[in-house]
Design brief:
Elements lengths: L6 E4 L5 E4 L18 H5 L5 H8 L4 H7 L9 H4 L16 H11 L6 E5 L16 H17 L3 E6 L1 H20 L3 H13 L10 H26 L2 E2 L6 E2 L12 H15 L4 H10 L11 H12 L6 H17 L6 H12 L7 H10 L3 H6 L2 H12 L4 H14 L3 H10 L2 H6 L1 H10 L7 H14 L7 H12 L5 H18 L2 H16 L8 H13 L4 H5 L4 H6 L4 H18 L8 H16 L7 H17 L6 H14 L4 H22 L5 H17 L6 H17 L3 H15 L5 E4 L2 E4 L1 H15 L12 H12 L8 H16 L14 H5 L3 H27 L3 H18 L5 H14 L7 H14 L6 H8 L10
Antiparallel strand pairs: 1-2, 3-4, 5-6, 7-8
């Protein structure tokens, strides 16, 4: 191309290149002379630019400018989905979109970066002017490109990584804005300048992240071009005269010639880019647009671009260019996959360049070691090989392995192959891979990573069963010789899963012993707790027989290697979680297993202190309780009780464990009673007395008042069931003394609520037990009931509520039942007060006296409610008391009848009485006294009149 200037551009790396062409000044700007450039001469005129230029009267730039680039911006259809990169490879095992975040996080740098651009602060600002003619349009486009080449490009130095990323994002925004502002040339120039940044390897460890950032912009540019061409293509459906946009799955024959011409012009302009790397990247970015020209162009273009990448001298730049080509190729759904394999084979052909003196010198200048340099290739190489391996057969794997052995026999490549192909293919050739990995060239690439990757494959797919043990032996001959603990444990945490999955417990035990030996030296375990924890997790996950696992002589020593308490507790929790899941409905009494689990639970328990959060306490407590419930010695009840005694001594800090122990001992006492069918012998009687004593001693150590209340009542009931009257009395007395300690507010479902409803419910349950508890000859009549009345009297009730009176009403019910000749329920082998007193007049008189006291208390509360105008509560309480007097008292006594009528009148005095309940009450009383001949009853019924103003 003839030029009138010497163009000097400072490249990204900082070097200056000059491009000088011998040219003859043209008489006018409209005439242009084409000469063969050196690249065209070398290719004997076969480059795309020369061929297409000879076919056109206008040069590519003029043709592109002549195409209506300055038309109004398209509608929403041409703009959608342009600000995010396109997911091109959803069919792969790991798509590119899922890799990008990992690359950006891993490949970082603290070095200063530089960027060359003309579109950020300090660069050129393109101003679009209205052109009146096609010639003006062409002239303006040429001037813009001339400005781009002439000196507006500026270099920004000493950028931090964050600043560099910010500049790249700014370029991305500028490109999209320029496109939608109808500045197509500016958008193309930004894409070209971004592509040029991929030549720079001055901060080599950041190159993979730079590739991700730049190719995201190129993806957007390619999407913009494609959508632009698609929306400009007016398509007439068969039988329709209304133009529409091309459908998603259009074919080339549906594209109008004008759109094809625009598409060609895009490729013409890109072919005119002088530098190889930006020309390649920009063409790859819009490669999908070939679908507007012909459906058969993709295969040729992909192979042509594959061969062009061979011209890139830097192997790192070349491999990422190949990666981008493979990614773009997969996005166009081309059925031809030859180019994928060709790209990988081209990398194999140039693999020796990675170790060339020039590369080593550059790495030395940047102070980057060879192993770090090789890791820079893994993202691109992994993607290329996964593209090749996608839906490939085992024959493809065999072919690639042969090529690798012939060309380079490299550890890096073998590692990538194992990561790319299906684990089943690798597992089927496991012994072959062990031989390859043992003998491969591992310069710059640690060999332990190879065996780690192989182990990962073999955990996902099963090798031949007959080779499982041999594979582990061959691998471990090499891994066990690793002196670096980090490298050793990196392999061990993978291969221990292989051993647990494919081999017996004996091999796993040997494996754990080897880990202990390697990690104990120099206290290496302190730096690798996470990996050691992973080892334990994987052993537990694949343990078929958990009991055998616990009896291994290396299992608990492996647990002892965790010296850090927090980590050790987490491991113990994992063990117990697996145990409870494995033996959800099974029990054990094996002393070795029981002692092992007791040791593990003790480690968890001893970690609890005043600073431990409640959720942690709850989790540890539940795990230990699960263990306690699974220890079962069958009919050996004494051994079972001894275990509970030992557990109580071991776990002293958690209420939930003590509560579980009390429940378990009570259950043990009930089972004993069931076996002897209630007829205790001297031995069983002593045993159930011991159980009751255990509960009575253990409950006070629980800090929760409510939990102690419940357990005292339950233990008293169990003791009563086993005829342990003294222990039952002691538990019930302790419960009575504890009622006053109940806090006024308790937490229910995360909210603080009054405790009075709980107290009322608890006392009702307590009263039902007191009915059948026989009086002690030494204590007097109903001494426990009297004690309860004293507690009720002294408790600080809320005067605004009816809780206290509700309890008194329940006491009346209990005293009424206690006056019967035979109680409604009994406990076998226990004589209640109905048997002891036989309705003795003195006993009945005492009951009446107690009832009078209780009624007096209720009447006092009724006066209080009336004085404070709580008429609704007063009416309800009066009616409740009336019902009890009418149903259970002797109304033939004038005093009681008068009291009942007064309560009736009080209930409806203020119009607050529940009419429905009152009607049911009168109907019940009429039915009850219908057969009575006493006039007092009839008179009483006749006086129960309901006033009309009562509440419905």
């Amino acid at each position: 191309m003839s030029e009138t200037r010497v163009v000097k551009l400072r490249t990204v790396g900082g070097s200056t290149t000059s491009s000088t062409r011998s040219s003859t000044p043209t008489p006018t700007q409209s005439s242009t002379t084409y000469l063969m450039d050196p690249l065209g001469a070398a290719l004997e005129g076969t480059d795309p630019l020369s061929q297409l230029a000879n076919q056109q009267k206008l040069d590519p730039l003029s043709a592109m400018a002549a195409e209506s680039w300055v038309e109004p911006v398209e509608g929403k259809r041409g703009k959608e989905n342009v600000t995010t990169s396109v997911a091109m490879d959803d069919g792969l095992r790991e798509s590119w979109s899922s890799r990008k975040a990992g690359i950006l996080c891993k490949f970082t740098t603290s070095e200063k970066l530089s960027i060359v651009t003309s579109f950020l602060s300090g660069g050129e600002k393109v101003v679009v002017k209205a052109q009146s003619s096609m010639v003006d349009k062409v002239r303006t486009r040429l001037e813009q490109l001339d400005d781009f080449e002439d000196g507006s490009v500026r270099q920004m130095l000493d950028l931090s990584q964050q600043e560099y990323v910010g500049r790249i994002e700014q370029l991305n925004t500028e490109l999209v804005q320029a496109w939608h502002q109808d500045q197509r040339v500016k958008a193309l120039k930004i894409a070209i300048q971004c592509s040029k940044l991929l030549v720079d390897t001055s901060v080599i460890q950041f190159y993979p992240s730079k590739f991700v950032l730049i190719t995201d912009i190129l993806d957007i540019f390619g999407k913009l071009v494609y959508e632009r061409l698609r929306t400009k293509s007016d398509y007439y459906a068969p039988g329709s005269k209304v133009p529409t946009c091309l459908p998603e799955n259009f074919t080339a024959d549906m594209v109008p010639e004008s759109a094809k011409e625009t598409c060609r012009n895009w490729f013409y302009k890109i072919a005119s880019i002088r530098e190889l790397v930006p020309r390649l990247y920009v063409e790859m970015a819009i490669l999908k647009s070939y679908s507007f020209l012909t459906s058969g162009e993709f295969s040729q273009a992909l192979l042509r671009l594959t061969k062009m990448i061979r011209g890139i001298g830097d192997p790192l730049v070349a491999v990422y260019a190949r990666c981008y080509l493979c990614r773009v190729g997969l996005s166009i759904n081309s059925s031809d996959r030859v180019y994928l394999r060709e790209n990988f084979y081209d990398f194999l052909a140039t693999y020796t360049q990675l170790f060339s003196p020039s590369i080593r010198l550059d790495l030395s200048l940047q102070k980057v070691d060879l192993s770090t340099y090789l890791t820079l290739y893994t993202p691109a190489l992994d993607y290329i090989l996964q593209s090749v391996a996608h839906e490939a057969t085992e024959k493809t794997l065999a072919e690639i392995l042969d090529r690798c052995k012939q060309k380079c026999n490299s550890a890096l490549l073998f590692n990538t192959i194992m990561a790319a192909f299906k684990p089943a293919y690798i597992a089927a050739r496991a012994t072959q891979f062990v031989e390859l990995l043992t003998s491969c060239d591992d310069e710059g690439f640690p060999k332990y990573l190879l065996f780690r990757t192989l182990g990962l494959c073999l955990t996902l797919a099963d090798p031949p069963t007959e080779h499982c043990l041999q594979i582990l032996n061959d691998v471990w001959k090499i891994v066990s010789k690793l002196n670096d603990p980090a490298q050793y444990i990196s392999c061990a945490e993978v291969w221990v899963q292989y051993a647990a999955k494919h081999l017996s417990t004996r091999e796993v035990n040997t494996f754990l012993g080897d880990i202990i030996n390697h990690m104990s030296g120099g206290r290496a375990y302190e730096n690798h707790y996470a990996s050691l924890q992973t080892v334990m997790e994987r052993v537990l996950a694949h343990a078929n027989d958990f009991e055998t696992l616990l009896t291994m002589d290396k299992f608990l020593p492996m647990l002892d290697i965790f010296q850090k308490e927090s980590v050790k507790v987490e491991v113990c929790k994992s063990i117990m979680l697996h145990y409870t899941k494995t033996y959800q409905y099974q029990t054990t009494n094996d002393p070795v297993i029981t002692n092992a689990l007791m040791f593990i639970c003790r480690v968890m328990h001893d970690s609890v202190n005043a600073l431990t959060v409640e959720d942690e306490k709850r989790q540890i407590g539940n795990l230990i309780c699960s263990f306690v419930k699974r220890v079962d010695f069958g009919r050996d009840f004494e051994q079972q009780l001894s275990f509970f005694v030992e557990a109580r001594a071991s776990f002293t800090n958690l209420d939930v464990i003590h509560a579980q122990l009390v429940q378990s001992v009570n259950r043990l006492a009930v089972e004993t009673r069931c076996i002897v069918k209630g007829h205790h012998t001297r031995k069983t009687a002593s045993f159930v007395h011991a159980c009751a004593a255990y509960c009575y001693i253990t409950i006070p150590s629980i800090t929760s008042v409510l939990m102690r209340l419940e357990l005292y009542l339950l233990s008293g009931q169990v003791a009563l069931l086993n005829q342990c009257l003294g222990q039952a009395d002691a538990c019930l007395k302790a419960a009575l003394n504890l009622i006053s300690d109940v806090p006024k507010m308790i937490e229910v479902d995360g909210k603080h609520r009054s405790s009075e409803p709980y107290i009322v419910s608890y006392i009702c349950n307590f009263l039902s037990t007191l009915l059948i508890v026989p009086d002690s000859p030494e204590q007097g009549v109903l001494y426990l009931t009297k004690g309860l009345l004293n507690v009720i009297q002294n408790y600080s009730w809320d005067h605004q509520s009816n809780a206290r009176s509700t309890v008194y009403l329940q006491v009346l019910d209990m005293l009424s039942a206690a006056s019967q000749e035979s109680y409604p329920y009994h406990i076998d082998m226990v004589d209640s007060n109905d048997v002891l007193y036989g309705s003795d007049p003195k006993f009945i008189a005492e009951l009446n006296r107690m009832c009078s006291v209780v009624v007096e208390e209720i009447l006092n509360h009724l006066k209080y409610l009336g004085a404070n105008e709580h008429y609704q509560k007063q009416s309800s309480l009066a009616l409740e008391l009336l019902i009890r007097i009418a149903v259970k008292a002797d109304l033939s006594k004038p005093d009681l009848a008068t009291l009942a009528l007064n309560l009736w009148n009080l209930a409806q005095k203020h119009g607050c009485m529940d009419i429905k309940l009152a009607v049911r009450t009168t109907e019940y009383l009429k039915k009850k006294f219908s057969g009575s001949n006493e006039d007092v009853h009839a008179d009483f019924i006749s006086r129960l009149k309901i006033k009309s103003h009562g509440k419905q």
